[in-house]
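hey team, just a heads up i'm posting the complex here instead of the shared drive bc the drive is being weird again. everything in one block, sequence lines first with there labels, then the predicted structure for the whole assembly after. its three chains so it's a bit long, scroll down
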Amino acid sequence: MNFIGTHILSVSQFDRAAIEEIFVVADQMEPYAQRQKVTRVLEGAILGSMFFEPSTRTRVSFGCAFNLLGGEVRETTEVKASSISKGESFYDTARVLSGYSDVIVMRHEIEGSVDEFAQASRVPVLNGGDGTNEHPSQALLDLYTIRKELATQGKNIDNLRIALIGDLKYGRAVHSLCKLLTLYNNIHFTLISPPELALPASYIKAIKAAGHDIVESNDLQQSIRHADILYLTRTQEERFPSQSEADKYKGLFRLNQAIYTEFCEPNTVIMHPLPRDSRIDAKELDDDMNNNPNLAIFRQTDNGVLIRMALFALILDVTDQVDKHARNVNWYTAKRF
Amino acid sequence: MNFIGTHILSVSQFDRAAIEEIFVVADQMEPYAQRQKVTRVLEGAILGSMFFEPSTRTRVSFGCAFNLLGGEVRETTEVKASSISKGESFYDTARVLSGYSDVIVMRHEIEGSVDEFAQASRVPVLNGGDGTNEHPSQALLDLYTIRKELATQGKNIDNLRIALIGDLKYGRAVHSLCKLLTLYNNIHFTLISPPELALPASYIKAIKAAGHDIVESNDLQQSIRHADILYLTRTQEERFPSQSEADKYKGLFRLNQAIYTEFCEPNTVIMHPLPRDSRIDAKELDDDMNNNPNLAIFRQTDNGVLIRMALFALILDVTDQVDKHARNVNWYTAKRF
Amino acid sequence: MNFIGTHILSVSQFDRAAIEEIFVVADQMEPYAQRQKVTRVLEGAILGSMFFEPSTRTRVSFGCAFNLLGGEVRETTEVKASSISKGESFYDTARVLSGYSDVIVMRHEIEGSVDEFAQASRVPVLNGGDGTNEHPSQALLDLYTIRKELATQGKNIDNLRIALIGDLKYGRAVHSLCKLLTLYNNIHFTLISPPELALPASYIKAIKAAGHDIVESNDLQQSIRHADILYLTRTQEERFPSQSEADKYKGLFRLNQAIYTEFCEPNTVIMHPLPRDSRIDAKELDDDMNNNPNLAIFRQTDNGVLIRMALFALILDVTDQVDKHARNVNWYTAKRF
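-- predicted structure starts here --
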């Protein structure tokens, strides 16, 4: 795949070779994200960060990734401050904003909005999440995390046993991850959710068509016994027709240290796209697991910076130059990773 | 005119020589805005971007312009996050914020607010729009666009035939553009609006006093026959006493490709200060014209970056240094302009 | 005190030697804040500016301070755009966000929230204000201003006579300043407030325990006769149970030029943490004093940049390197200070 100048809109764009290329560049970015080295390869470049739906994590992660490559970030954080509220089309917004930056990351609550925007944009666009549809950088960081975590156990993604748990209907992170995993060989999926929040049929069909196993279950404890990865999700309340409808499913599936100890293998890795809901009636992933070394949820978000740096470097064609502009960090840095 | 350290508050500050000076510097900025070259002339300088009224386009355009010169941007995007909501005077806000930056751009919904702010500021202030009053950088980019578009046809601003269409009462872009055009010779104005949204009498008087022609009309099709430039505007709903009052005027004057083909000259240039209202009941400028090469609306916004770079460079006295700090862009850049 | 890598959460962390160290570095920062020199010592470093409560002044001041050292700023300006609104714990927010930056400044309306956040953060955290609790950089800039203002009169902080006026109950700036002043010798406090808004008993007890004088008063004019410093505050309306409750205390104590001339010593310095409430029914510090040379309120905010630069430089261990990366400013700079 030729990344130069392309939009990143959907995980469907990637084959295994493209994914591997992204992951190799992500590995290359680690000394910069860890603040051992500084590069200024994108000094003078501008990222247009267009978040028309609330976000801190993804927005800051993208911005940080661009800054770590030496570039600047110009941001919009809400739709009501934008011309879209005055009747402007995505076409116009895209034509205008793409004159202001070298690359754009966009989030919007409407499915397909980012595609529409990208078609009119004069610069490459990265999808930072369009409603329940796609969130490709999240799927890539999840897969990259799986690969890294399994590597420490001498395993790789082929033959993975993964349990997806919780709201599998509205969780776009789960959807995109499923699409990516189907590219690999012999994946064993365990889908644990209330029937009403099951993984949509189209995803199940695609997984089966690619020759992978699926077990569907309504019983958390019995279904997590033989998994390399547990991937938990919160109930995506904001996607439900009403709060009371969402509340029905709150706290149905909960993982805590006691359950983990009794039912999981000793090396089972725990992932979550975050935020996890820590309110007393939710707690799908209990904070009594915070010191469990297999809890990979913060390594996921750290990896997100690497993946986003890699995407920027590939799209803007600077992977070869990153290390040439490098110097050592000259300020105090915490041991963080 | 000596630009160094001055506030840019109103188009009334400029004579033809000053405007020409700005336009020459804007031309100089093109390789930087087109991402052929990078300059870092303002590295270490800070722009205070104080938008106390919603804006994406103007805010990002100013920020981008400052970044392209190498400077940093610190932003405020809403009044409720500011001390003004705790009873602070513009005087105090200005005294404080001007200690944080080298230059400030400010937008506020109250007419005259930016003047009041500038009087107390310790650094140069650019008016990014104060209510229905002034928006000088918009007027400059409009005039710069007119000049550029006409130049390709071997014409210049003198003797221009321009039709201003739509809400001429509340559209500050129109007001400021009229003021600038009166500085030139023999301008033919056609004003097309509902009587209730006519250009205010003071502007008409000033145009006539400067010796230019005015024709007022309520008929779009017959009035656009002999124009070099059509300048369309949306109904400025947010300035109306009520939504229902604004709705009366929605969609009254509409330009689309069929009308253009039948009634306009083949080279008539179409401008709009944007956003255009693409909702079905508005559509003052139909998107079936998006591929018309005479549609200059996105060249306008591109030119906005050049004009804002020029203003910063002139005010901060670095025009002579810009090219000295230049190097070639080292990342992928789209063909955009 | 070793500043490298530490959190700055409370003024209780500091002894006199630590404060003196901060003030010496703040003095060193003056040519950079005054835009005589540029340093790029933190080029490549990222400040995470996490303001979960409205703020312009403090947020921009911190961001500007970091930019002046050459670093980048990634911001969040409201809680509703954050995962906290989806039930995320401070622990999770901190673990995630601390992977994105080299240092964090945080403001949140909940007392103790910043402490909780800092415990989970993997990078140093500065408290930018947690409810009515602490706002240490404000207290430091206030004390630094007192020191600088008195120095011009040949006095120092020991033996200071200070009158604290207005809402002494909810004003966290006052609370933190009182804590710092107790570290010095022989401070004479005059506390002027309505009885219901008196300084909390715990502060009074601590001041007395440290051997300082306290006079409490309900009479502004008679109580400001022998003060080196008048420190006025606005009624912190947003902390009151209701607006009507807050309104009872509005405008009770007002200082203007006539009162100052009649009752103050000629060199009495006037301070205020800002914003001051300039609405007609409030006006605790009248704007007829704006040209009084003893009005130090804007020197306070200017000093805030110096203090915040000093804290960043100390925490990130670059004080020795700042001047090595320095060059002269190459653009127009106003005489501001």
